[in-house]
Amino acid sequence: MTNVLIIGATGSVGSVTRQYFLDHTDDQLTLMARNTRRLGQLSDRERAVTGSVTGTAALTAALKGQDVVFATLSGNLAGMAKSLVAAMDETGVKRLLFIASMGIYNEIPASVGASGNLATNPMLQGYRNAADVVEASDLNYTVIRPGWFDNGNDTDYQVTKKGEPFGGHDVSRKSIADLVVRLAHDETLGSRDSLGINRK
Q1: Which of 50, 95, 104, 143 has the fewest CB atoms within 10 Å, i.e. the most exposed one?
Q2: Spacing of C-alpha 167 from chain mean position
Q3: With contact defined as beta carbons under 8 Å apart, do 174 and 155 qualify?
Q4: Residue 162, phi then psi, degrees to nearest 5
Q5: Residue 83 vs residues 78, 89, 112, 134: alpha-carbon distances, Å
Q6: For the whole prediction, is pTM greater than 0.85?
Q7: Kind plus residue range of the DSSP H or E element containing 70
Q8: CA 70 to chain centre
């Protein structure tokens, strides 16, 4: 059994990943969100923490006793990443799984659609800045770079490492959840690396 903190648990990826943990593991989940009422009914393996990743007190409380942190955030991502890394250092939690985006390293080849790269899509700069913060930390991190995610029911996906060309344009949220669960249960998988994920 693993203690997992999901930050951004009410978002589209967070909520699918939450359910995937419940369906496929016996892990204990701590669900952090700004509005925990949106979480609905909690199972006996879940607890909710109301707060933001930039709220030091709530974040520190949520981190206590955790083995793994899964962060799927929106907003000022670099600022959030700095707060999270600092709080994890303070509480001694080492394993961080952090959602960014494909294209932040200009790794999308023309065959997939190079217009999705940071060089031509400045909207990705926030994701890149956050990834840079995470990669500069001493945490056992994995940055996850999904393609455009959809509600597909498949877990048929391909993983690429930093420095390799991105493999495809889209991916299901369920596939992201499957990868997160695998990473949460194997601290050597994707250790201090950045993984692209796309549908095969």
Answers
A1: 50
A2: 19
A3: yes
A4: -60, 135
A5: 9, 10, 34, 11
A6: yes
A7: strand 68-71
A8: 5
